[in-house]
C-alpha cells in the first residue's frame, strides 16, 4: 500500500498553482512573475511563442496561462487557438496581454478562446482580480 501511495505522489505535480507566462519583453515577464509569485503561483516564464507551445505540449499541468498577443515565432493568438483544440489544454484559462497596437487581432482574442484580455500597461490588481475571477468561475 505504501508503494502505491509513493507512485501516486510521484505522478502528480507538487503544486497545481502553476502559471505559464509568455512575453518577449524581459521587464514585462519580470513584472508578471513578481505579481504571480506574490499570489502564491509557481511561474514558468518563457520569451517566445515556440517555447510556450513546447511547454504546453510537454506539460499541461498549468492552472492558467498569461500570453502576450504578439510573441516571436508563434503568436499568442495561434497558441490559444491550438489550446482550444486539445482536450488536455482546453480548460486552462488564458489571459492575453497586448500593447493594444493591433485592434483587429485584439478583436479575435475572445472568439479564439482567450478567457480575458488585458491592455498594457495594466495595474497588478487588474491581473490579480482577473485571475481570481477566472479561477473561481472554473471551480
Commentary on this structure:
The structure is a single chain. The protein is an alpha/beta fold and 139 residues long. The chain has one domain: Rossmann fold (3-Layer(aba) Sandwich). The protein has a five-stranded parallel beta sheet with strand order 2-1-3-4-5, with helices on both faces. The longest helix has 15 residues. It is globular. The N and C termini lie far apart (31 Å).
Q: Which class best fits the helix and strand makeup? A: alpha/beta
CATH A-level architecture: 3-Layer(aba) Sandwich
Round the mean pLDDT to the nearest integer and report it. 87
CATH overall fold name: Rossmann fold
The helix tally amounts to 6
Helical percentage? 40-55%
Overall tally of domains: 1
Which radius of gyration do the C-alpha atoms yield?
A: 15 Å
Shape summary: globular
Spatial ordering of strands, largest sheet: 2-1-3-4-5
Task: Determine the CATH superfamily.
Answer: Response regulator
Q: Give the percentage of residues in beta strands.
A: 15-25%
Separation of the first and last Cα atoms = 31 Å
Largest sheet data: 5 strands, parallel
**For this structure, what is the CATH class?**
Alpha Beta
Query: Could you spell the SSE succession in H and E letters?
Result: HEHEHEHEHEH
Low-confidence stretches: 1-15
The number of distinct β-strands equals 5
List descriptors:
five-stranded parallel β-sheet; disordered N terminus; 139 residues; alpha/beta; Rossmann fold; 6 helices; single chain; 47% helix
Summary?
Helices cover 47% and strands 17% of the residues. With 139 residues, the chain is of the alpha/beta class. The chain has a single domain (14-138), classed as 3-Layer(aba) Sandwich (Rossmann fold), CATH 3.40.50.
Amino acid at each position: 500500500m505504501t508503494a502505491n501511495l509513493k507512485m501516486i505522489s510521484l505522478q502528480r505535480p507538487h503544486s497545481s498553482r502553476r502559471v505559464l507566462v509568455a512575453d518577449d519583453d524581459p521587464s514585462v515577464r519580470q513584472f508578471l512573475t513578481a505579481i504571480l509569485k506574490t499570489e502564491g503561483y509557481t511561474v514558468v516564464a518563457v520569451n517566445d511563442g515556440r517555447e510556450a507551445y513546447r511547454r504546453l505540449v510537454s506539460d499541461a499541468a498549468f492552472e492558467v496561462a498569461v500570453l502576450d498577443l504578439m510573441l516571436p515565432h508563434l503568436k499568442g493568438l495561434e497558441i490559444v487557438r491550438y489550446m482550444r483544440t486539445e482536450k488536455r489544454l482546453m480548460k486552462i484559462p488564458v489571459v492575453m496581454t497586448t500593447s493594444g497596437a493591433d485592434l483587429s487581432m485584439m478583436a479575435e482574442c475572445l472568439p479564439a478562446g482567450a478567457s480575458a484580455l488585458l491592455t498594457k500597461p495594466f495595474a497588478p490588481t487588474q491581473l490579480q482580480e482577473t485571475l481570481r475571477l477566472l479561477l473561481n468561475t472554473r471551480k
